[in-house]
Amino acid sequence: MTELPIQQILLDAVSVLERLRIPYAIMGGFAARAWGLPRPTYDADIAIAAGTEELQKLFDGLEQEGFDIPPEHRTGFLDVLAGFKKAKVNRFVDRNVWHTDFFLAQGEFLNSALARARETKIGLKTVRVMAPEDIILLKLIASRRKDLADIEEIMGVCRDLDVPYLRNWAKSLGVADRLAEFFPQS
Amino acid sequence: MLSEAKLQAYREMTPEERWSEVEALMTFAWRFLKELPPEELERRLAYDREQHDKADEIILAHLRRYS
To answer: Are residues B19 and B49 both part of a single domain?
Structure first.
């Protein structure tokens, strides 16, 4: 048991996904910490492969674990961000609300990232985390100062990155020029 | 950034050892935050959530364009 609310919440959400056999991969800050250097993070992001039926079962399971499901999710409405769907659920710990975001794996890239997820440890639990290359690609897209710092840290820790994979996807995702700043073409 | 020697030591840790370093640092930061007045704690967490949501919007808009 951890005293970090967001880590416990993430692991509880993962337990529900595993019980329901819903394919998932942790992404966001926790994935960056798993492959990079220690730094605080307060984000719980998980990519999942789920249809409407699985999603409703997921919401039921999460509710049983103390998560608060926005009523609009129950009627089939998800947060739609530029055509991609995201479900945001909440859990209150003391007086603070913590969000967990579920990204529905749509499109070739997120499905590839979901399939390539690796097992690693977060706390005492073995979980599936998006591979470092896929986290780098997402960070290249976001490209905020902290994202670029995350990329440098992941590169510093992971010495066996699949650079051809990175180059291929960076080209497909339109971020080849950004990647070249970290991996100059020889 | 860490020195090369410290970085190498970190690379050589097992995933369990690495996560225990992550958790120790996160716990330190969280204990600090919990000492703040509740409204200041909530303000900082809300700012973090807002920044996080903005990044999600950028990523998802980009993925849609390139998928």
So the answer is: no
